[in-house]
Design goal:
Layout (H helix, E strand, L loop, with lengths): L7 H7 L1 H9 L3 E2 L2 E2 L14 E6 L1 H18 L2 E6 H4 L10 E7 L5 H12 L3 E6 L5 H5 L2 E4 L12 H21 L4 H17 L4 H10 L8 E6 L3 H16 L3 E5 L15 E6 L6 H13 L3 E6 L8 E4 L6 H22 L18
Parallel strand pairs: 3-4, 3-5, 5-6, 6-7, 8-9, 8-10, 10-11, 11-12
Antiparallel strand pairs: 1-2
Helix pairs in contact: 2-7, 2-8, 3-7, 3-10, 7-8, 8-12, 9-12, 10-12
Bound molecules: 5-amino-5-deoxy-1-O-phosphono-D-mannitol.
Subcellular location: Cytoplasm
Keywords: Aminotransferase, Cytoplasm, Glutamine amidotransferase, Repeat, Transferase
GO cellular component, one term: cytosol
Length: 359
C-alpha cells in the first residue's frame, strides 16, 4: 500500500499535488469558486467568522484567517477547540462558526461545534471524512478530498484544508463584492499554480536529506515566519516535534526580539521562511538579528541570503501563496528526513494517535 515509498507520510507528501487538484475539481473555474455544498443564502448576513480546530487543523484555520480577512473582508477569529469550550465564549448569531478536522471525530472540536449550534450560530465543517460525527453535526460541510491519510503526522490533509479556506475566501469575496472579477481570476490562477508546486522535486528531496544531518542535535528549533507564514512556521514546528521528538517552536519572526532571542547561539536552529512576495525585508532583518547572535540558520527563500548557514532555494514565484505551498513541502520533507535519521517510527510516532476522540 505504500506504493514504493518508505512511509505513508512520504507517500502522502508526494500525493499532495493530486489531492489539491481533486479538492478544486468542480469547484473552481474561470472567475468563480462555487461550492454546491453551500446552499444559496447560507452565507448571507454573516458579519464575522470564528474558526475552531485542534493541532494541524488549527494551523490551517489560522492560515485561512489571513485569507478570509484579506479577500472577504470579514473579521475572522481562530480558536483552539479545547480552549474555546471552557472560556464561556461570546457568540453572536451573525457569526459563522467553522470547524476544521481531518478525522471528523476530534472530541474537543465536536463539542465546540455543538456549543456553537446551541448558541444559534450557522455552522460549517471543513472535513476529510464524509459521514463523520462532525459532518453529521454541522449545518453544512465542505469535504477536503485528501483521501485516506494514514501517517499520524498530517500533511496532505493540511494542504487541502488551506486550499478549501482559500477557495472559501474567494467564494465569500464574490458574494460580498470585496474583490474585483480580475482579482478573483488572478487568485484562481495562483491556486492552480500552487497545486502544481507541491509536486515534489527529487533533487530538492535529496538536498533536504543531506541537510538534515546538521540538524539532529542542539538546544532546539525555532521555525519563524510572518503573516500567513507564521501559521506555516507553527505547522513546520509541529511536524518536526511529532516525529523527531526534538523541541521545536513556531514563532512570528517579529516577536523574537521580545524574549526568545535570548536563546540564540549556534546550538539554536532557526528555520526561517523568507518568501519574496510578502514582507521579505522585514523578515530578513529579523533573521539577520538572529544570525548576528550566532544562531544556526536554515533559510528557505528564493533570494540569496548571506546570513544563512544553509539555504534551501525555492524559485521566484508570482504570489506569496505559491511560495506558501512550496515551502510547506520543504518543511514536511525536512521533518521526515530528520525523523528517519533519528531512527524513529515516522508513521506511528510515540504517544500519538491519528484521531483524538477523548478530551
Ligand atoms: O482529525 P483532526 O484534524 O481534528 O485532528 C486534529 C489534530 O489532532 C491533528 O491535526 C494532529 O495535530 C496531527 N497529528 C498533526 O499532525
Amino acid at each position: 500500500q505504500k506504493e514504493g515509498y518508505r512511509y505513508f507520510m512520504e507517500k502522502e507528501i508526494y500525493e499532495q499535488h493530486k489531492v489539491l487538484v481533486e479538492t478544486m475539481m468542480g469547484r473552481v473555474g474561470g472567475a468563480e469558486v462555487h461550492f454546491e455544498e453551500i446552499e444559496a443564502g447560507f452565507l448571507e448576513g454573516i458579519e464575522e467568522i470564528t474558526i475552531c480546530a485542534c493541532g494541524t487543523s488549527y494551523h490551517a484555520g489560522l492560515a485561512g484567517s489571513y485569507l478570509l480577512e484579506r479577500h472577504a473582508k470579514l473579521k475572522t477569529n481562530v480558536a483552539i477547540a479545547s480552549e474555546f469550550r471552557y472560556k464561556e465564549p461570546i457568540m453572536r448569531p451573525s457569526e459563522l462558526f467553522v470547524v476544521i478536522s481531518q478525522s471528523g471525530e476530534t472530541a474537543d472540536t465536536l463539542e465546540a461545534l455543538k456549543q456553537a449550534k446551541r448558541a444559534g450560530l450557522k455552522t460549517l465543517a471543513i472535513c476529510n471524512m464524509d459521514n463523520s460525527s462532525i459532518v453529521r453535526e454541522a449545518h453544512c460541510s465542505i469535504l477536503t478530498r485528501a483521501g485516506i491519510e494514514k501517517g499520524v503526522a498530517s500533511t496532505k490533509a493540511f494542504a487541502t484544508q488551506v486550499m478549501v479556506l482559500w477557495m472559501l475566501s474567494l467564494h465569500i469575496a464574490k458574494i460580498r463584492h470585496t474583490l474585483l472579477k480580475e482579482e478573483i481570476e488572478g487568485q484562481i490562477h495562483s491556486m492552480v499554480e500552487s497545486a502544481k508546486l507541491t509536486r515534489v522535486d527529487e533533487r530538492l528531496h535529496e538536498r533536504l536529506k543531506k541537510l538534515s544531518k546538521r540538524y539532529l542535535h542542539g538546544h532546539g528549533f525555532f521555525f519563524i515566519g510572518r503573516d500567513i507564514f507564521y501559521p506555516l512556521a507553527l505547522e513546520g514546528a509541529l511536524k518536526l516535534k511529532e516525529i523527531s521528538y526534538l523541541h521545536a517552536e513556531g514563532y512570528p519572526s517579529g516577536e523574537m526580539k521580545h524574549g526568545p532571542i535570548a536563546l540564540a547561539d549556534s546550538e539554536l536552529f532557526t528555520v526561517a521562511l523568507m518568501p519574496k512576495n510578502l514582507l521579505y525585508d522585514k523578515i530578513k532583518s529579523n533573521v539577520e538579528e538572529l544570525a548576528a547572535r550566532d544562531a544556526t540558520i536554515c533559510a528557505i527563500t528564493p533570494e540569496p541570503f548571506e546570513g544563512a548557514d544553509d539555504l534551501v532555494f525555492t524559485a521566484a514565484r508570482e504570489s506569496y501563496m505559491e511560495e506558501f505551498f512550496e515551502m510547506m513541502v520543504v518543511l514536511q520533507i525536512l521533518a521526515l528526513e530528520i525523523s528517519v535519521r533519528l531512527g524513529n517510527d515516522v508513521d506511528m510516532p510515540r504517544n500519538l494517535a491519528k484521531s483524538v476522540t477523548v478530551e
